[in-house]
Structures are given as C-alpha cells and as structure tokens.
Amino acid sequence: MIDTARGFVDRRIYSDEEIHALEMERIFARCWLFLGHESQIPNPGDFVTSRMGEDAIILCRDSNGKVHAFLNTCRHRGNAVCLFDRGNTRTFTCSYHGWSYDLEGKLTGVPFLTEAYYDQLDKNAWGLIEVPGLQTYGGLIFGSWDPASWTLEEYLGEMRWYLDNMLVAEDMGGLVPYTSRQGYTVHCNWKIIAENNVGDHYHTLHTHGSLYKLGLRDRKTGFEGGQSPNGPFEISLAPGHGIGGVETGPGGYERELKAAEALGPEAVDWVRERYQRVLKRLKGVRAKPYSYSHANVFPNFPFFGRGGALNGRTLFILCPVGPLQTDVWQWFYVERDAPEIIKQKSWENLGREGHLGSGLFAQDDAENFERVTESTRTTVARRYPFHLGMAIDVEGKWPGQETWDVEGLPGVIGPRFTEHSQRRFYQFWAQLVLDDQRIGHGD
Ligand code: FES
Ligand SMILES: [Fe+2]
Questions:
Q1: pTM above the 0.85 mark?
Q2: Which of 57, 93, 321, 421 is the most exposed place for a label (fewest CB within 10 A)?
C-alpha cells in the first residue's frame, strides 16, 4: 500500500473502512495526541471538550489543580456526560438517568441508589474512564491511551527542538489564547490535511494563487521569492513529523522590522527586543531559524503561523469522523509579551487570509482536499496510486545544499519543493498501521 522506494501511496488508504478502523486502533488509541493548551483550563473546575480520534474527551482541572482527561461517556449506558464545549463546573451530570461524576472522574451520584440498585452498585468501579497518559509540554497537553509504549519525549522526537524554538517560545512569555475554539468541517480524509501540513510548500503558489493576484502577498520577494541559502526549507523529523517554510538568517527579521513601522513605535520596539531574545536563545546554534510556515506533529496536530514577531500561532486538531470527514478544530495563540497592537493585527490578518473558516487559505485548501478524497473512493480512480515521489533520487543530496545556512538544525533538511516529509509521514503510518509496530521501549 505504501511504496516508500518510489513514493507511491495506494488511494484506498483514504477511504477504506477497514483501514480507517485500523488507524483508530493503532494510531489514535496509541500515539500521543494533542488535546489542548493549559491556558484553556486555568482554574479549578474549568473544562473543555476535545477528541482523541473519534472518541469524545473531557479535559478538566480538578479542585487541587490537577489536569485530567476522561472519555466523555457515561458508564451507565453511554450518553455524553458533558454537553458543552467549555465551562466551569463541580460535576458532570448525565442528562439521561442522572448519574454524576466529580472532577476526578469518581461516580458520586446515582439517583435512587437504594430503591433501584438495593445499594449493590460499587460506585468506585464505575467512574469515568481516564486517559492514562497525560503530559504537558510547554503548555501543550498531550494524551495517550498507551503511554507504556513510548514516552512523550520519545514520541515527539526531533520535533521537540522546533516546539521549543519555533512554537512554545517560553522566553516570549509563552503562548496565550487570543480566541476560543473555531471549527469547520471538510469532507476529506484526515491524512489529506495532515500530509499537506507536514511538508507541502509545493502547492502554495498555485492553490493560494489568488492572494498573489490580489496583491496580498508578493511572490517575488523574501519568504516566497524562491530557494536561497536561507530557505525556505522543508524539514522531515523522526519519527513522522515535519515542519516547513523554515527561513534562517536575518532576512525574516529585517522584513518584519520594516512591516512593523506601519503599526507604530511600540511594534517596532517589540520586533527589535524579541529578536535579541531569539538570538540569546539560539546562541549555540549556527543557523538562526526565524520563521516557519506549516508543521504537523503526527498524526493530527498541525500548527501554523510563521513563528516570527508579527504573526500569531494557530494550533489545530484534525478530528476524523469516519474516513471521509474531518472536523477541523483550531485555536489562535499569541506570544504573551507582544504588544496589543501586534496581537490584534495578527488576528485580523489570520481572519482575512489565513487558515480560518473565513480565511482565503483554508477555503482554497478545503476545496482541493475534498476533490482529492472523492478520487480515492470511486471504483476505477482508486486503482491508481498517488505520486509522492518528487525528486526522491536526490533526497538528502539536493543540488546546492552545501550552501544552505542550516547548521545545528535537527532533522533531514530539504528544499522548498520536496515530498520527503510526506514520505516519512507515510513510512511511520505504515509502520504503525500495517506492520503493527511502535517505536520506543517495550517492543
Ligand atoms: S446513560 Fe448516563 S445515567 Fe444512564
Ligand atoms: Fe494550503
């Protein structure tokens, strides 16, 4: 199904029900999945709902401040016990027969316990099902049904460096939310979105061509201008992650400094000060990555946002609903120390052209993703594999790579046009789903 030597991918993996069921079991019930950010539940009693694959999840903070993740299903006969996206509560009470659970998942209330059960129900045995692996990384909350197979650190692998330096940015005060959850539904397989995020810079100039025609972006300058020794680079990361559109050197900073002038002196000062903090953090790293465009933590946690001073960060969860539908959930974050004018402008910018329901980028992408998925379902079209073999013979020895300013960056660094991150994504996918293997200790 996955021919890694040639980069061919069988179309059936996007629409076949049996493959989908295997993915739910071997990926989503096994990998470390992004569930939310600590700032979404700052106080005791706060909760948000999330998903792990197709399973509904409640993420909450108990009265002692500890974070828990529970299956959002009543132990009596299965109804959801939390019907809201977010809120603050002391109990989750099922709307069917009224069983209620506290913030630690304990079954605390059973109507007519004596009259109906003759006090024979062991309440201790019927609490909410808790996700056994729950860990926070720089404010990002990850959960796993199978934490014994691999630690979160092993699982994140080479992506950790990029989370530290391009996303979480503790030295900018960390990330704070600027909006609550946004969402939209795309009639496509979840992998079509994930593979795009993991390393597809190739589609940008074409799929999103309207932005250039409208003059919202200039395809000839800076980040979008072409391959240079400073990028943009597509970086494939073990075991199955990727980050792309990475730009090194001072170019990104200089462009942002100029752009900040339109926002006033406070913005200019922040861009300058922030760059000093970046340089301090990257003291031991020869290449100075300044920004990125897209990334995906396997399997379903993309993050976007350039990573520079003037753009926020969009965090996503791709929620599969059967093989042919994906609910896209997203949150917009900004760096805590940034001035308000930058936070506000970056949000406006995202709404206009970014990966938001209203943004041009998301709409352009979704149309293609739906048509691609449809082609994997129909009888004859699905006989023909997808081609993800771009420049496979020069992978790792790309012409001109000796001039690239990338020293010290983890991962396999490739040029802007390559599909090596997608190939690694599918290699890892095949290892999990088809070969039933995992990395880490225990196997
Ligand atoms: S299904 Fe929840 S109380 Fe019966
Ligand atoms: Fe796109």
A1: yes
A2: 321
